[in-house]
Description:
Layout: H1 12-19, E1 25-29, H2 33-42, E2 47-56, E3 59-67, E4 73-78, H3 95-98, E5 108-117, H4 123-133, E6 137-142, E7 153-160, E8 167-174, H5 181-189, E9 193-201, H6 204-213, H7 224-227, H8 229-233, H9 240-246, E10 249-253, E11 256-262, E12 273-280, H10 290-304
Parallel strand pairs: 1-4, 5-8, 9-12
Antiparallel strand pairs: 2-3, 3-4, 5-9, 6-7, 7-8, 10-11, 11-12
Amino acid sequence: VVASPLHRDHPDNQRLALHGDGVKDIALEVDQVADAYEATVSRGAVGVTEPTRIEDDNGVYEYATIETYGDTTHTFVNHDDYHGVFSPGFQSLDPARYSPSTRRPVGLKAIDHIVGNVELGKMDEWVDFYKQVMGFSQYIHFDDNDISTEYSALMSKVVQNGNGRIKFPINEPAKGKRKSQIDEYLDFYSGPGVQHIAMSSAGIIDTVTSMLANDVSFLSVPQTYYDTLPERVGEINENMARITELGILVDRDEEGYLLQLFTKPVEDRPTLFFEVIQRHGSRGFGIGNFKALFEAIERDQALRGSL
């Protein structure tokens, strides 16, 4: 959902002045809104909106909201008994009227994971929040030996819910010779927040081709990345010529392989960006691509003069 305040005195204008455009809320679908809210608040979460029930001609919609890192929130939602368009107050529109005819469908299916950036020393605090308050578990951990370049580094831990459908990597900067991409984000966003949203595709080559046609800009990696790709990932059932041409990253682990590509920041600040990911068995996050990705982001940082 993309939202914008209509009036100058709207409280969201203060948030926009501080952070710029970004992610305000990550909604989570639950069976019982009141139970989720009461359980998390009793474990230490800060409540924002108590359980609320809206009824209209389309049924019943329930929600409640708590705080997470920075100014970001989580809204617990249940719309099992709501049969309208999305949620109360929304109307259905004809896409043909509001989308340029030249725009191509891109084939994105769902959110794969959402990554948050927090300050140095705060990663474990927020990992504990998701474990103790939200009932998540830690899935994987990357340290500065895994994600580093000559100049900068970061650390990351991934938490997930019980069935593994919801995954939240939490990043913090590590000490380096220069400012890391996480430090840059924290400076420009004026605090912690959502760094990127990863969206899954059943055919990343077609998705990226369409997104490029729709004027989306992606990070680029040097040709040398592909010179050693066959040795690193082995044989995969993909069009390697197109993968190389489009700059798609590939990684393999013991469960399979994945393909991924990252957009450049999509707003006027170097903060929020998107990832396109296609999984073939792998449940990881492309650890073999971290160095190439980090260096690609650093090249953009250098162009902005903030490395």
